[in-house]
Design brief:
Elements lengths: L3 E6 L6 H10 L5 E7 L10 H11 L6 E6 L3 H8 L3 E6 L2 H17 L4 E6 L9 H9 L17
Parallel strand pairs: 1-2, 1-4, 2-3, 4-5
Bound molecules: adenosine-5'-diphosphate (ADP).
Length: 154
């Protein structure tokens, strides 16, 4: 059976932290669906189309990576795409507490799906999309925190 994982998130924008987790997970799964959550009540900072474009650019050479949007519950999306795994990254103990609650709730809603966690590599621990957005909003250069070749002004 195909091992399909969903990597859900806002990716607003994709960072080197996300990129690293996805790349490290490629040998584990047959397919990874990077799923950008669309929330009708929370627009986010960058347009969904741009977020998708940048993720596609990063993984254009990777046939096992798919990029798409979804709305609603992550478990419902997993059912729809036949994914048996949800991939998440862990940076800190705060991440752990947050992720634990979500993963255990998802498990009780859809027992067939396992959440798989990968620990961040130490140098990428401080990177998060909120900080990247703050740097950009204040006219700073965030390029060292985002994947190579991505231009957030395009
Ligand atoms: P959300 O909106 O659900 O927080 P994000 O887009 O911020 O989603 O992140 C998606 C996933 O990527 C989460 O599992 C998050 O823990 C992980 N992640 C984000 N930044 C990093 C990082 N620097 N290192 C490892 N994992 C990360």
């Amino acid at each position: 059976m195909n091992k399909i994982a969903v990597f859900p998130g806002s990716f607003d924008p994709i960072t080197k932290g996300h990129e690293s987790i996805i790349k490290r997970a490629i040998p584990i799964f047959d397919k990874i669906i990077v799923a950008v959550g669309v929330n009708s009540e929370k627009a986010g900072y960058f347009a969904i189309e741009k977020r998708l474009k940048w993720i596609n650019q990063v993984f254009k050479a990777e046939s096992r990576i798919e990029v798409t949007t979804y709305s609603g519950l992550t478990v419902d999306f997993c059912k729809k795409v036949n994914a048996r795994f949800i991939l998440r990254g862990l940076r800190t103990s705060a991440d752990f507490e947050f992720e634990r609650a979500i993963a255990q709730t998802n498990k009780s809603m859809l027992p067939d799906v396992e959440t798989v966690f990968m620990l961040t590599t130490p140098e990428l621990t401080p990177i998060n999309s909120t900080i990247v957005r703050d740097i950009i909003k204040n006219g700073g250069d965030a390029s060292r925190f985002i994947p190579q070749g991505i231009n957030l002004t395009e």
